[in-house]
Write a structure and sequence with these properties.
mainly beta, about 120 residues, 7-stranded mixed β-sheet
């Protein structure tokens, strides 16, 4: 099983990025899917959840209204559209799957997002 994140980078405040999480060896739709992030010196933080092929979604209050999670079943890929980025969004972003985000069954290595002027 592999989860491979991509799409991170450096942007200015107010900018946008779209993260992708491509999976192999596992059908992502079989599990709740998460985006989580970890900033330097801080704990792992839940960002968003996508459940099922049709997608019940949830968002942290910190990103609600700015980030959008989606899933392409044909590509077996999870996405996170991030708009109106703020410096506080700077972190390593990981996708994961499992019953809970705190103890995922699988998690990718992450993609770095840096928001700075």
């Amino acid at each position: 099983v592999q989860l491979v994140e991509s799409g991170g980078g450096s942007v200015q405040p107010g900018g946008s990025l779209r993260l992708s999480c491509a999976a192999s060896g596992i059908a992502l739709s079989s599990f709740p899917m998460y985006w989580v992030r970890q900033a330097p010196g801080k704990r792992l933080e839940w960002v968003s959840t996508f459940v099922g092929e049709n997608g019940n979604t949830g968002y942290s209050d910190l990103v609600n209204g700015r980030f959008t999670i989606s899933f392409d079943n044909a590509k077996n890929t999870l996405y996170l559209q991030m708009d109106s980025l703020e410096s506080e969004d700077t972190a390593m972003y990981h996708c994961s799957v499992g019953r809970t985000w705190r103890a995922p069954r699988y998690q990718g290595q992450g993609t770095q997002v840096t928001v700075s002027s």
